[in-house]
Write a structure and sequence with these properties.
- The structure is a homodimer.
- The first copy, chain A, is an alpha/beta fold.
- The first copy, chain A, starts with 14 loop residues before the first helix and ends in an 11-residue tail after the last helix.
- In chain A, helix 2 packs parallel to helix 3, helix 14 crosses helix 15 and helix 15 crosses helix 16.
- In chain A, strand 7 and strand 8 form a beta hairpin.
- Chain A has an 8-stranded parallel barrel. In chain A, strands 1-2-4-3-5 form a 5-stranded mixed β-sheet. In chain A, strands 7-8 form a two-stranded antiparallel sheet.
- Chain A contains 21 helices and 19 strands.
- Chain A is globular.
- In chain A, about 35% of the residues lie in helices and about 15% in strands.
- The interface between A and B is medium-sized, with 26 and 26 residues.
C-alpha cells in the first residue's frame, strides 16, 4: 500500500460491476456520480446491459432514498424514485458483487430505517493544546482543516464522501460540538469553508451540518445577549441562517451543545432548552433545516461528597418535562446511554420518555472509552443490542423505531491518518454504523463479514475466518479487561486511555464507583439509592431495581453490592472481576497470536500497523488486568480462587 | 500598590540609612552600586559620616563576600575585603535599620557559610503547552523571556538582582534544566540573551549559570555523538565554552540534568556520570567555571508491579560508587530528599556518602508539592531542619557543612507576577532561602520576623504577630492536611496540585504508598523491604530501620504498617490520619480568619491577593481532608474515634 488506504472500496470491490455492461438512466448530479463510478469501474456502457440502474418513470413508494433490486432475464435492475436511492442501490450491487449477477432475484425493496444517518466530526480548525485538533480523535488531524485553515486540497474529502455514501450515511456535521472562538466563525465569515466541504460531499448525497455556539449572537453578532426569546437574537439567527442557505442551499442544519461542560446555553437567561432549540429551529424551518439539540446536559461541577446527585439522572430530569414543547424540526439528540459512551451502559431512559419529540440517538464510533483505536473493538454488537432494545416491553418499539424520524448519529472515528481510522480494523466501526443506521436489525456479524469481504477482497478463507474471530466478540473482550459489571469509567482522567480506578472517584465529573473494603457499585435504586431506576418504564424499572433480576453486566451500574454477592452467573462479584480480567487479557493475547499467523496475507503496510496496535493492546490489557485486580484485591482482601498472580 | 510590589525592599526599608550621612570608600562596579543605593535612599554623602562603608586597605580574612560591622564613636562602619562583601554589608545595615545606629557595637564578622547560593530558574523561552513557560512556576511567565524572545525591557531583572543580593544570593541559573530545542541555543547563537541578563545581574554581584543539554554537540554542533570521551565532543565543548567566556567573562558555569526523565546523558554511550560531568568541568576549568551536575537520576519508567525497585535508592546507587571521581570544579547537585521535594522526606543519604565530592544541595522554593503558592507554606523551618541535620551522628557535620564548598540551590519561585511569587507571602521563602544559604544555622522564625519587618515596615504589632502566627508553622499545617506520615505524593498527576491518593499508585514514576485494607506505607527496611535504610550511616540506618525508633513523621516513608499501629505519639496510624486532617483543615480556616482581621492594615492590592489565595487554601485543605479521610476510611473501615464527618 502506498498513499491512502482504500478502506472498504478497493478497486477489486468493483470487479463484478466492472466486468458487466451497465446502463444508467436518469438525470441529476447523483446520477452523474453513478455514471462516473461505473466508468471508473471499467464497465462498458450498453443499451443491452447486464445491470440497469434507472430512476423510476413514475415514482412510487420507494421514497427519496429507497431502491428496488431484482434480476431476471439475465439483467439485474435497480430502480429508485430519486437519485439518492439509485446511488444507494448502486453501492448495494457493489456489495453483492458476483451475487448480484449469478441468479434470478425477486424484487427486493430497500429503504433506510432511519431518516438521518449522520457522522459528527469533533474537528477543530486549530490544534487545541489539550484536546488536539480532533477532540477525542485517534486518527490524526482533521480531514477538513490543517494549520488553522481549510485544506487546499479537498480531494480526500470527496473520497470520504464516497466511503460514507457506500454504507448509507447521508449527513456530516463538520466541526466539534465544543465550538471554540475560531470555529464559531464558520457560521459567518468563514462559511465559505463549510460550503467548500459541502461541495465535495454533495455528489454523494451527503448534506453538511454545522455545530454552532449558542452565544454566537454575542460572539459574532455584537449583541449584548443570546437570550432565545429576545427579538434581536431571533432576528440575528434568522438573518444569519438565511445567509447560510444562500451559500449552501442544501445545508442540513445546526448541531448544538448548550449548557454542557462549560458551553453557553439558554439557562443563562432563565430559558428552557426547548426555548433554545426552538429559536434555532424557527430560523432553520423556512429553509427545510433541522437543529440537533444535544441532551448531554449535566452538572460537571458536582461535589463528589454529594451522594444525592446522580449524573445518570440528569438528561431525563432536564428534558423529559419538556416533551411536546420542541418544534417539529428540533431534534433532541440523546446519547445512547445515560452517562457517556462507556463500554457498557443501559439504554438511556430519555429515549422512552419523550414520545412527543423527535429523537436522534448518538453513539460513538470514535473509540474514546473503548480502546482509542489502539485496541480491536468492533462496536456493532453493542450498537445492535441498543438499537433493538425495547424500553417499554417486548411489544413496545425498539430504540431504532423511536429514532426513526430523528436519526442515528455517530461521533466520527476518522482523521487524516492513511488508514482513515488509525487502526485499520476500526474502519469496520464506521462501515457498520452506516449499515446499522440503514438497517438497525441487520446482524452485526453479517455486516462484519460484508466489511471483511469488501476490504480484503482477495483474502483466503483463513484470513476471513481469523478476522471474524478477532473482531466479532472484541467488544466483550474489551469489556472483560476494563471496568467490571457496568460500573464504567476507571480510566485515566483527561485522555481516558488506560486504567486509573480512582481517577474520577474524587472529582467533579459525577462518575463514581464507591468501592470500599466491603463492596462496590452505584446504588441507583428507588428503594435506597438515587432513584434512577424510576426513570425507566416497566418492566425495566423493576428489573433494574431488583438485585436478583438486574442483568449481571449492569449490576454495578444500578447496585452497590458486597464483593461476595453472588451473580446470576453463579460467581461472586470479586471472583468475576478476577476471572474476567485474566480472561480478557488472555483473549487480547490470543487476538494478537491469531493475527501473527495471517498478517502476511495482507498488504505489509496494513500488517505493520495492525501488529503495532495489537502489541499495544496486549500491553494495555495486561495493565488493565493487573491494576483492576490489584486494586480490588487490596480493597477486598479476597484471594483469587484460582491463585493467579495479583500484584 | 500600583505596578510591581517592592517585596522586602520598599522605600521605607531604607529610611534608617536614608536619614544618615554616608561615606562609601572603594572602587568597582559593586561599590558604585552601593553608592547608587545610598543616593537613592536619600542619604547625604559626607566625609564625617554616620555610616562608613569601605573596602579594606589591607585585605584580611573576610574573603570575597564577607564583611565586618561595628559601631563606635557615633559611626557605624562596614569593612570588606572585596566589593561583594561591602554590598552584603550594606544590605545588612539596611536590614538592621535603626538598630544599626542606636548603640555601639563590637566588631562582628560576617561570612557566608556556603560559597554558592543559587536560584535556579526553570524558565523556558517558549511557553510549553503542558508545563507553561516556567516549569513548576506559579507566579506567571518568565522574568527573562516573553513570546519566544528576550524581554526588550530588562529593568525588572535588575530589580530582581537587587532583591536577591539583599538576601545574599550570588548566582542565577537562568533556564529550565529540561533544556528543550529552542533553549539549547542559549549556549551558542542565542548566547547574547544570556549576556544581556548577566549584565543586569552583575551590578549586584550575581553570576549567571546556564542549563545545557547534554546532547548539544549533536543538536547544535552537528556532531554524530555526544560521547563525553570522544575527542571531537570534548573539543566542541571546550571551544563553545571559550566563546561563552569571551561573551560573559564572569559566567558561572553549567547546570545539567542528564539521563533523567528523558533528558540525554552519558548512559547512551556507556559512560558514567563522572565521565559526563568531568568533560564539562574540563571545558569550564580554564575559565574558572563550575558544572552543577544533578544527581536526580532514576528510572521514571518503572513498572509499578516491580516491588524490588525503589526510587528512593536511585541517586545513591548511581552516584555513591563514583565518589572521588569528579573533578574539583564538578559539583554534584543533590536534592535534599531522596524522592522529589515532598512536604516531608528524610535527608538524602547521598549527602553522607560522597566525602570526596563537592556537593550542592538543591531545594525547591517554588511550591510544587507544598501548595503552589496558593497555600501559605513558609518553608524555612523545613530547610533549616535539613541543613542542620547530622547524617553521621550528633558529632558529625551538618548538611550545611557538607555543602559548604558546593553550595545551596533553590528552584526559583519567581515569575512576572506583580507580587513576584504569586502569593505575596511566598516572597518569604525566597528571602529565607537567601538568608539560610548565608547562615544555615539562623533561626527560621527570626528570618520570618526580619522579612515581615522589611516587607511591612509600617505594620502595627497586631499585623506582625498575625503574620508570624499564620506563617511560622504553616509548613506543619500543610503537612497535616496532605499526605500523612511522610508517605508523600498522593497529588494529582501532572500538575501536582490537590489530592489524588491513588494518582501515582499504578504509574511508572516510582512513587507509591501501597495502601490496602490492612495498612499503608513503603517498606524500605533492610530486613523485609527495599534496603534503603542501609544507605544511611549510623545511627540513622538503625533508627529508620526500627519501627519503634523511626520518627512518626517519617514512619510511612520507611515502613508499611497496619492501620492500628500505635505511633510514638500514642495514636494509631488511622486515627492520626483523621486527626491531622481535621486539624490541618481547621488550621487553614483559622489562618484565613486571622488575616480577615488584619488584612485592611496592608495595601489593598496585597490584601485582595492574599484573601483570594486564602480562600483557595481553605477550599483545597477541605478537599484534601475529605479525600484522604474518605480514602482511608473506605480502605480501613475504621471509624473516626471522634465521630466527625467522613464522606
Amino acid at each position: 500500500m502506498t498513499g491512502i488506504h482504500p478502506a472498504w472500496l478497493p478497486a477489486e470491490a468493483f470487479r463484478a460491476v466492472g466486468s458487466r455492461r451497465v446502463a444508467v438512466h436518469g438525470d441529476g448530479e447523483l446520477v452523474d456520480t453513478i455514471r462516473a463510478e461505473v466508468a471508473s469501474a471499467g464497465s462498458p456502457s450498453s443499451s443491452s446491459p447486464d445491470l440497469a440502474l434507472s430512476i423510476a418513470a413514475t415514482p412510487g413508494s420507494l421514497g427519496d432514498e429507497g431502491f428496488a433490486l431484482a434480476r431476471s432475464d439475465g439483467v439485474t435492475t435497480v430502480v429508485a424514485d430519486a437519485p439518492a436511492g439509485l446511488l444507494y442501490g448502486f453501492f448495494h450491487v457493489v456489495r453483492l458483487g458476483e451475487a448480484a449477477f449469478n441468479a434470478d432475484r425477486p424484487v427486493e425493496e430497500h429503504r433506510p430505517a432511519l431518516r438521518r444517518r449522520m457522522v459528527e466530526h469533533w474537528d477543530n480548525v486549530h490544534v487545541n493544546p489539550v484536546m488536539g485538533q480532533v477532540e477525542r480523535g485517534y486518527a490524526g488531524g482533521s480531514l477538513f482543516w490543517e494549520r488553522g485553515a481549510l485544506r487546499a486540497d479537498l480531494r480526500r474529502v470527496r473520497d470520504y464522501a464516497r466511503l460514507l455514501a457506500s454504507c448509507g450515511i447521508n449527513a456530516v456535521a463538520v466541526n466539534n460540538v465544543n465550538v471554540h472562538a475560531t470555529e464559531a466563525h464558520l457560521l459567518t465569515d468563514r462559511l465559505g469553508e463549510v460550503a467548500a466541504i459541502a461541495a465535495e460531499l454533495r455528489p454523494y448525497g451527503i448534506r453538511v451540518h454545522l455545530s454552532v455556539n449558542f452565544a454566537s449572537p454575542i460572539m459574532l453578532g455584537g449583541l449584548a445577549t443570546a437570550d432565545p426569546l429576545d427579538p434581536s437574537v431571533r432576528e440575528w439567527w434568522a438573518a444569519t441562517t438565511s445567509r447560510v442557505y444562500e451559500t449552501i442551499p442544501d445545508f442540513g442544519g445546526y448541531v448544538v451543545k448548550a449548557d454542557s461542560e462549560g458551553q453557553p446555553g439558554p439557562f443563562a437567561y432563565g430559558r428552557s432548552h426547548a426555548d433554545g432549540a426552538n429559536m434555532l429551529a424557527d430560523a432553520l424551518a423556512p429553509h427545510g433545516g433541522v437543529v440537533h439539540w444535544r441532551a448531554f446536559v449535566y452538572n460537571h461541577r458536582q461535589d463528589w461528597r454529594d451522594r444525592s446527585t446522580d449524573r445518570a439522572r440528569a438528561a431525563y430530569d432536564h428534558f423529559a418535562p419538556l416533551d411536546g414543547q420542541f418544534h417539529d424540526n428540533a431534534i433532541l439528540q440523546v446519547k445512547h446511554g445515560p452517562i457517556d459512551f462507556q463500554t457498557r451502559e443501559p439504554v438511556s431512559p430519555v429515549i422512552a420518555a419523550m414520545p412527543g419529540t423527535r429523537l436522534a440517538v448518538e453513539l460513538q464510533a470514535t473509540q474514546e472509552y473503548t480502546g482509542q483505536q489502539r485496541h480491536v473493538c468492533y462496536l456493532a454488537p453493542m450498537w445492535s443490542e441498543m438499537l433493538r432494545f425495547r424500553l417499554h416491553a417486548d411489544d413496545g418499539p425498539a430504540v431504532a423505531a423511536i429514532a426513526e424520524s430523528g436519526g442515528l448519529v455517530a461521533v466520527s472515528n476518522v482523521g487524516d491518518d492513511p488508514f482513515w481510522t488509525g487502526h485499520p480494523l476500526a474502519q469496520a466501526n464506521l462501515y457498520a454504523f452506516g449499515r446499522l443506521a440503514w438497517a438497525p436489525d441487520a446482524d452485526p456479524l453479517a455486516i462484519l463479514d460484508e466489511w471483511i469481504g469488501l476490504t480484503f477482497p482477495a483474502a483466503p478463507p483463513q484470513l476471513r475466518q481469523t478476522l471474524r474471530a478477532m473482531m466479532d466478540d472484541s467488544w466483550h473482550t474489551y469489556e472483560k479487561y476494563t471496568a467490571p459489571l457496568g460500573v464504567g469509567f476507571m480510566v485515566r482522567p483527561g485522555h481516558h486511555y488506560g486504567p486509573d480506578v480512582d481517577g474520577y472517584e474524587y472529582t467533579s465529573w459525577g462518575t463514581y464507583h464507591f468501592a470500599d473494603r466491603d463492596g462496590v457499585g452505584v446504588d441507583r435504586t428507588r428503594a435506597t439509592g438515587t432513584g434512577f431506576t424510576g426513570q425507566y418504564p416497566q418492566p425495566w424499572a423493576d428489573v433494574y431495581e431488583s438485585l436478583d433480576q438486574c442483568p449481571d453486566e449492569l449490576l454495578l451500574f444500578f447496585h452497590h453490592v458486597p464483593y461476595g454477592h453472588v451473580l446470576r452467573s453463579g460467581s461472586t462479584v470479586i471472583q468475576h472481576i478476577y476471572d474476567t480480567h485474566f480472561d480478557g487479557a488472555d483473549e487480547a493475547a490470543r487476538i494478537r497470536d491469531s493475527w501473527s499467523v495471517v498478517g502476511h496475507l495482507v498488504d505489509p503496510g496494513v500488517d505493520a500497523r495492525v501488529r503495532e496496535r495489537l502489541d499495544e493492546q496486549v500491553r494495555s490489557a495486561e495493565e488493565w488486568r493487573d491494576q483492576i485486580n490489584t486494586y480490588f484485591f487490596r480493597k477486598s482482601g479476597v484471594p483469587d480462587a484460582k491463585n493467579r498472580r495479583i500484584y
